[in-house]
Amino acid sequence: MVDLTQKFDVLVAGGGNAALCAAISARRAGAKVLVLEAAPKFYRGGNTRHTRNMRCAHDAATDTLTGPYSEDEFFDDLLRVTEGNTDEALARHMIHESKEMLTWIAEQGVRFQPSLGGTLSLGRTNSFFLGGGRAMLNTLYHTAERLGIDILYDAEVVGLDIENGMFMSASVQLGTERRSVRAAALVAACGGFEANIEWLKQYWGAPAENFLIRGTRFNRGSVLKMLIDEGVEQIGDPTQCHAVAIDARAPKYDGGIITRLDCVVFGIVVNKHARRFYDEGEDVWPKRYAIWGRLVAGQPDQIAYIIFDASSLELFMPSCFPPISAPTLAELAQKLSLEPAALADTIRDFNGAVRPGTFDHTNLDDCRTEGLTPPKSHWARRIEKAPFYAYPVRPGITFTYLGTRVNKQARMLMRGGTPSANMFAAGEIMSGNVLGRGYAAGIGMTIGSVFGRIAGREAAINARN
Length: 465
Ligand SMILES: Cc1cc2nc3c(=O)[nH]c(=O)nc-3n(C[C@H](O)[C@H](O)[C@H](O)COP(=O)(O)OP(=O)(O)OC[C@H]3O[C@@H](n4cnc5c(N)ncnc54)[C@H](O)[C@@H]3O)c2cc1C
Prior knowledge:
Number of strands: 19
Order of helices and strands: EHEEHHEEHEEEEHEHEEEHHEEHHEEEEH
Strand content: 15-25%
Structural class: alpha/beta
Bound molecules: flavin-adenine dinucleotide
Number of helices: 11
């Protein structure tokens, strides 16, 4: 039993990577720490459960990384994907600190493995968790328990008592009981608001009803909202998020990585009117996969279909659902409830525009269309070899970028720029400081680990003084 009448040094709201890194770091700095996780124990760990890897700068190859990845290269990658929408000083600080993360995380018991084939060519830059995100989390929880950190599950933070930027206490819902918990410092590490469809609808309108949420249903942004309402400065465009095309048959929440579809480049993508709407071969897949969530979100009823033929079936990692198949395109159209004549027209036009080339799905090849709008710039091959296949896709929201503004200590900044007396943030809830838009694979875990570690350490120091 955790004694909730005592005053804790550090209260951590959340139970994913950022929260656990913060809790462990605070505890190792001598603080008495309480973790409040909204989810039941089985579902603990939010979106972190679904992760596979983390991007950190490093000077040399390791047992599991194939070569060096300098701080400058990491920053250049970040600059490219965000198109400059990042807080440069903070981003550079994070990247510098990331160099210590692989060792620090390993000191907490987490193990790494070489990257698997077919995982977006990340073997040099990204470290893969042995056993995936869930194994990583279980290890962090085990370490946290061993260090004497108090952890409560089914413990949603439903209220914050904040006076002039100073955290006093939190209200926590424990079953039917609501309790107040006091602490000298707060670390908010409870994710974005991607699972809050009503909030998404404020920016996206009715289409948000058709979004699928790839991760936990518990990231509803309630703490984020409370903090903003209490005068914490918000950062990030609320419409910006990481969104990919996922199998439309995925569950509403928590479909995870196995519902993602990587076969766009091998076929064509049509909307419910059987019309193409974007260049499927614009660039190599790792650079383009994260635009397809938004593209599908812009289509009628937020549904689209990736269509390909037998020659591409074995070239990509499938989703956990089998593709829909048919011996003819007309039958495939019927199975997808598409107008067969419209699909036939689209495929006839596409096949007619394909120019001869040498197909090479590992490079930007010369297989392209001519005189077609939109074009397919690479990997364009005629769709003609039966059987024919399709995957229905919907926007899969990974996480949102709206967050709380922080400084290099992970300390929240109040509107006007004054640092909060005792409130810190880490992970998705402050990702907008680094990610104004776009995404580079593995950076979500970097943001959580680096700022989680800093937030925990700083919160512990704050509590002592
Ligand atoms: C399918 C999928 C695959 C991904 N793969 C990768 C990857 O390989 N690499 C990578 O870097 N990133 C990946 N990401 C993104 C990554 O998951 C996140 O960036 C990262 O896990 C965020 O960590 P976090 O601790 O901030 O949030 P989370 O891990 O989501 O944790 C938030 C926690 O807060 C809790 N919570 C929410 N509200 C409250 C409340 N009011 N009170 C108490 N607790 C609350 C939740 O229950 C949860 O435990 C992936 C995401 C998804 C969905």
